[in-house]
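Intended use. Records like the one below are meant for learning the mapping from a protein sequence to its folded structure. Do not use them to infer anything beyond what is encoded.
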Amino acid sequence: MAVLSLSLLERMRDAVNRDSSFRALGSCDARVGLRDGASAYLVTFEAFECAAVAQIDVDDLRDADFYLDLGAAWQGYLDGRRQASAPSLLSLDLDTPGGIVRSSTDPRKAFEFERYHSTLQAFIDAGASST
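Structure written out for the chain above:
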């Protein structure tokens, strides 16, 4: 069963867009996919805000600059972040064999994750605090 949902991502978007510390993380221009089993979502960051979230077909992850795939571990990861016991996305990517960051069309795009990981972490943490 999918943990991520469009309503959760909309709450995450609204939370980070209201948070001045989110804007202080700097500009982020990326189309980031999130894969949760058979479900997929596209989160669009423009400048200092999360501009849009949308549910997409898994095949449409090719349109993302890169995407995060935690397999069946989304719920555990969100729970761990809420309890301050889960690693950052960057650490998780480095410590997971094969990583969690994917790019289906241009492997170089996956390197943008390292540039924007603080913004993505703030976005995911907003979801952890709202679940």
